[in-house]
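Ticket #608: bound-state structure for zinc ion.
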Amino acid sequence: TNIEREEVIDVHERFYEFIRGFRDRSGSYKYRERLKQMITMGQKSLIVDYNDLYLFDNRLARLLIDRPDEVLRQASNVVKEIVESEAPEYAETVEHFYVRIRALPRTVPLRRLRSEYLGKLVMLEGILVRTTPVKEKVVKAKFMHCTREHGCHKFDWPPEGELIGDVLERPPACPVCGSSSGTFRLLPEESKLIDWQRIVLQERPEEVPPGQLPRSIEVVLQDELVDTARPGDRISVVGIVRVRPDSVAKKKAIYDLYIEANHIEVSQKILEEVVITREDEERIRALAKDPWIHKRIIASIAPAIYGHWEIKEAIALALFGGVPKVTEDGVRIRGDIHVLIVGDPGTAKSQLLQYAARIAPRGIYTTGKGATAAGLTAAVIRDKTTGEYYLEAGALVLADGGVAAIDEIDKMRDEDRVAIHEAMEQQTVSIAKAGIVAKLNARTTVIAAGNPKFGRYLANRALADNINLPITILSRFDLIFILRDQPNPEEDRKLARHVLEVHRETEKTKPEIDPTLLKKYISYARRYMRPRLTLEASKLIEDFYVEMRRMSSENPEGPIAITARQLEALIRLAEAHAKMALRSEVTREDAEAAIRLMKTFLESSGMD
Ligand code: ADP
Ligand code: ZN
Ligand code: MG
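RESOLUTION: The complex was predicted; output attached.
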């Protein structure tokens, strides 16, 4: 219609004006410069900040959201024209320029995405959990049409522009002879192809309502966007909402929504999800000054659970974590503290783990079997309906930069038993299977629990005999605790009273520090604190380590070999203890706390 015609012209002109005339706050022509840079760098995408477009012409910006196909096509033409006039030789080498839009004013929560957004430009955020290998998609098809009357001839399809979406149907009629009968044959070698990849974006664990499964959506990446993100990455996607026939239902009336990406960004700042305001910061700083801050934090971990003070302390230290380091020759030393609890059934292991996952930034609670086929690390999986292989990230990759609470770790899959060594020490997951080769990040703290192999923990047997995990995995834990459920009238009465108070909801069982504030406190410490060892603390740790080694050499059959691993663990624990008070130095007190916990661990595992 006429109205549409007018708007089309308007878009082209307004977008041209925007590129040529937009000035940022400092007065410089931001997009003229970006365009120049694009040419000198040999790129073909111009990235536009949505907010700039909105400031320049809010009608155009709104039209972009409503009718992105049309506006982006025009915008791409504008870029092409400008490049043609400014660098004609370069323009000839590039078939298609892209205008990519970043940072829309709001994101659509994954579980709100419905058909009302069809054909619209949206922004979504989530974790990339799955990628397919790179394929080639036809964007301009070459068909061969043969009929009795006219013989055979070739034509391009679609006649104008490129294919939108990813379904290529048989053309309704031949643009050359006008006939719709005869045979139409696609000629892939003569068609124009671009790189194509499907990924799956999943809600971030912290956004999933309690007790529900995370939702996910497919996103199609094309051309330069392909392979720019890896499973486990947190990304934001700007793209157009499209539909395709449901592959399972096979009924033409059922469709799936998916996103055709226009732009994706990998989130760099690991802890940016927890928002800390100025006021929060003041409250955090004030809390840290409390001389009892360590006790108050520990008391705030699972307050409904009676006792288990050392375990709660270990969980607290793991939540804060030590300081990761890179040696001069580029070797990474992890800062993450891994904690394992081995214990009799019904000793609150699961409760402790669930609580830890809830207050940890980027916390995930899962079981050894894993919530998905990808398990704890990662897997190459074959899709039952399409037969296609894809790479899917498991829990330790999804919790990259955060904490994975793994319950019943002794039940993990055999593939994970192999891969978890690398994940816990080098903090990566490597996979090579069915043509997919990848190395994913797993800079994740593991807080795990396991049940004893014989149902109950047998005190007369060594730790390694009591749990169905190889020594090589056990040795990657900084601290291991053993929880035994033994009747003890006095303790039993205290536990009963505590549990009853929880049920009566008295003041006594309220957490010392509100969980929301504690989560912010932890994020803040993880983000900003990098405490350094003082000489005094170093000396204490050194002496204790030498003493441990001496004792273990007297008892060579001991359950845990004392190696430099324990030394690194002590340093991490002391650093985490300093972080808990937001200290920039690791003091004597911090070293003593680390030593105390290490002693508890060694004694309980029969090492003393
Ligand atoms: P596990 O995972 O060790 O088998 P659970 O975490 O499932 O044990 O705990 C079983 C139940 O017993 C939970 O409801 C838990 O709250 C309760 N419970 C066990 N130990 C304690 C404790 N020390 N204080 C309070 N409740 C406890
Ligand atoms: Zn024809
Ligand atoms: Mg349990």
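RESOLUTION NOTES: The longest strand covers residues 135-147.
TICKET STATUS: resolved
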